[in-house]
Amino acid sequence: MRPLFSLLTLAVSATAQYQLPPVPVPSQNPMTPAKVVLGKILFWDEQLSSDDSIACGTCHVPEAGGGDPRWDRGLHPGPDGLYATDDDIIGSPGLTRQDGSGDFTADAVFGLRRQVTRRTANTNHGAAYHADLFWDGRASTTFVDPETNQTLIPFDGALESQAVVPILSPVEMGHEGRTWQEVRQKLQARRPLALALSLTPDIQAALSTSPDYPSLFSAAFGDPAITAARIAFALASYQRVLIPDDTPWDHYVAGHTTAMTPQQVQGWNLFLGIGRCNACHTPGLFTDDQFHNLGLRWKNEDRGLGAVSNVPFDDGRFKTPTLRNAGLRPRLFHNGQSAALLDPSQTTDPKSTFSVYMNGGGVDTSNLDPFLLPLIQFNVTTQDLLTIQHFVATALTDPRAAQGLPPFDHPHLRSLDLAAPRAFGAAMVGGSEPFVVDTVPANLGNQQWKLGVAAGQGLSLAYIGYGARSIEPAQWLAGLPWNIDVNDGRLLLLGGNPGDPAHATWRVPVPGDPALTNLPLFFQTWALDPQAPFGVATSRGVEITIR
Question: pTM for the whole thing?
Fold first, then answer.
């Protein structure tokens, strides 16, 4: 039997070994409460996107482990451009593509539908500890001001480097050619979080004394100037507080021996033992902050780090994600190919994390990481690996994130909490099925509200009608379905390149009259289309509620 002092020494040693160090904070961007709350406001403001439909927080929800809960709407066809094939990717839904003037324009892959990113959104929980960010590491530790091209942070600036990328991306938050001047002018004119459905106490307190963005920037930086660098500094400061270090495992290694269940303890021991999981998922952040190739897909489909380093050995290598809060994430791996850790398909789906680790990789074994060896050769059983996954899914989950409690509390996003516009009724299909592009929120006082019309190909004419009443079921007149009782409408010339869907954008300012709150409007499109039975194609009806 070991002496008591020896047991205490072991306990202290284990705590020191696994304890997360202080969060790295670059001296050029010291954290302050005013800067953190500004970053929180920016992170959760859908108005930071060019059309008010996406916030940073849309793709990084704490209750989803810092990932995207909308995985069931985020299918990308992959490199072959075809859906329902092996290279499909579960990414994050972004914006409907928009040109430099903000008009809807056809994307080569998605047409006039929402675009989807080529990788699933990685967690931002614990991101403050990473030297480089994004799955491919292209957001480097050195932060360069995107407006002045000056190096502002030589080290520990990965969060700042990452923060500025999505805002101008025409897939994620911007239109084609969006500039920082446009971002600046928009923030100067908008009420912070005007679209949010509820605000947290810290945000309410900040807005009570600084009700607009210039005053928020003044509180954080000393003057009201809004710059790309300051936006990055604020967003990074906020994300540096999102550290999921209050898990059962944290309490267990700190000496609270009952903090984990016997099954979790067994999984932890297997994690360190025959599972060899700690080789890449090093406690306590549970990542080695390196890049590895698991052979999930053929490396030429997505070169990963290789496209950044231009080193062939790096092809197919992606960043090791932290396992903290992995049990909250609905999809796993950079392409989202695996279901959640506790999903029953783990033991049957060859694309699951269970199958990849048990078998020592995916379909492409040409450039596998040497750390990746089949667990089956170490006599790891199915039950062993399920026990390890149970440990990761439960013992490494921070209940504050799961429940949206500080520091993971946040405003409720309009796009996630309100029902999407409702499609109903029948359509008359021609060369394609016409539809109304309804992704921009119809909120009171939105002077930039717009609808799109997509129908047929090439130059054509379309009529978009609207009314205050739907017709359900559709009424058929002259061989065409009528889904709405049309009060008025607009004739639009549909443009588009040969082979692209014909389309047009209708800008419809929404008055700020509170009497319009919860008013439903109904829309339908009729378009000339020689391939339709009567030369006219029609869309289904769409119900949009002003809120």
Answer: 0.95
First to last CA, the chain: 69
Query: Which residue is listed with tokens 């992606």?
Result: 318
How do residues 185-205 score in pLDDT, each as one tens digit? 999 999 999 999 999 999 999
- What Rg value do the Cα atoms of the chain yield, rounded? 26
Show Cβ contacts of residue 39 under 8 Å, excluding neighbours closer than 6 positions: 233, 234, 235, 236, 237, 238, 239
Q: Give phi and psi for 305, each to the nearest 5.
A: -60, -30
Q: What is the pLDDT of residues 400-410, one digit of tens each?
A: 999 999 999 99
Domain with CATH 1.10.760.10 in the chain: 33-63+105-243+410-414, 247-397
Return the CATH fold of 33-63+105-243+410-414.
Cytochrome Bc1 Complex; Chain D, domain 2 (1.10.760)
User: Which of 70, 36, 44 minimizes the C-alpha distance to 411?
Assistant: 44
Angle formed at CA 222 by CA 220 and CA 225, multiple of 5 degrees: 85
CA dist 141 and 29 (Å) reads: 13
Nearest to 217 by CA among 231, 196, 237, 202: 231
**Sheet of 501-507, strands arranged across:** 435-437, 450-457, 501-507
The conformation of residue 66, written as its DSSP 8-state character, comes to T
- Give Cβ neighbours of residue 232 (< 8 Å, ≥ 6 apart): 143, 160, 161, 163, 164
CB 198 within 8 A of CB 412: yes
- At 170, list the tokens: 């025409």
Superfamily of 247-397 according to CATH: Cytochrome c-like domain (1.10.760.10)
The CA distance from 394 to 373, in Å, is 25
Counting every residue written for the chain, the total comes to: 547
The segment(s) of the chain belonging to CATH 2.20.130.20 are 419-545
Nearest by Cα to 74 from 119, 118, 116, 121: 116
Integer CA distances (angstroms), 374 to 78, 216, 281, 288, 365, in order: 27, 53, 16, 19, 12
Q: Cα 547 to the chain's mean position, in Å?
A: 24
Amino acid at 401: A
| Type of residue at 164 | V
**Across the chain, what does the average pLDDT equal?**
94
Closest Cα to residue 361, out of 369, 278, 384? 369
Parallel, antiparallel, or unpaired: how do β-strands 114-116 and 93-96 relate? antiparallel
Q: Evaluate whether the domain defined by 419-545 bears CATH number 3.30.43.10.
A: no
**Model confidence pLDDT, tens digit, residues 499-542:** 777 999 999 999 999 999 999 999 999 999 989 999 999 999 99
Q: What is the DSSP string of 188-250?
A: HHS-TTTT-S---HHHHHHHHH--SHHHHHHHHHSS----HHHHHHHHHHHHTT-----SHHH
Q: Which helix (H) or strand (E) holds 14?
A: helix 4-18
What pLDDT, on the 0 to 100 scale, is given for residue 141? 98
> In whole angstroms, what is the distance from residue 458 CA to residue 358 CA?
52
Which of helix, strand or coil describes residue 39?
helix
